[in-house]
Write a structure and sequence with these properties.
Blueprint lengths: L1 H12 L11 H11 L10 H23 L18 H23 L6 H28 L3 H33 L8
Keywords: Membrane, Transmembrane, Transmembrane helix
Protein name: DUF4179 domain-containing protein
């Protein structure tokens, strides 16, 4: 502690700020400023100056239109399609989607008053699976393409197809029972 005090006293007694610039220093500085080449201001054509604000407004309008049409990706959206993962997953999604569409069309063709309740119940189950799939798309965006989420999405597709096939079999059974003539059957 005493050593610190001695050092402080030593430096307090010394005056290090003893040099001052020479009298010609300011003159030399001003001369160097005058010798420095000045930048030339670009000459603007009056036409360009007049159209510059109009082009800025047009560009802003175009950006707003593109944003609202969804051309720019929404950075706050965490939804991601299975097709965005890889080309193979795109083919997988397209395959399952086409099979589901085909099975739904076949199911709609089989709709009769007798099968209406079964078909409506199946459509309600499909809506639940579709909502689950939408949640999985959000999870895929948040998880950064986690393999478990991808597997769950594929499983969801398979469950929908299995449900549709099972309902089609039940509808066919109902239609077969309806068309069977029990009066001609001999026991």
């Amino acid at each position: 502690m005493k050593n610190d005090r001695d050092l402080k006293d030593l430096f307090d007694g010394l005056d290090f700020d003893i040099d001052e610039p020479t009298p010609q220093h300011e003159d030399r500085f001003r001369e160097k400023l005058r010798q420095r080449p000045q930048k030339k201001k670009p000459r603007h054509n009056g036409l360009i100056t007049m159209w510059l604000p109009v082009m800025a407004v047009a560009a802003s309008f175009l950006a707003a239109v593109l944003l609202f049409q969804g051309v720019f990706a929404n950075p706050f959206s965490h939804t991601q399609e299975l097709a965005n993962v890889s080309p193979e997953m795109k083919q997988t999604q397209e395959f399952y989607s086409s099979v589901i569409r085909t099975e739904l069309a076949a199911l709609q063709e089989q709709k009769t008053p007798e099968t209406e309740a079964v078909i409506n119940d199946a459509l309600a189950q499909l809506d639940i699976l579709e909502k689950d799939y939408q949640n999985l798309k959000k999870d895929l965006g948040k998880s950064g393409q986690d393999q478990r989420v991808i597997f769950a999405m594929i499983t969801n597709f398979q469950k929908r197809i299995d449900l549709l096939k099972m309902v089609l079999e039940k509808v066919n059974d109902i239609n077969t029972l309806k068309n069977t003539n029990h009066e001609n059957t001999i026991i």
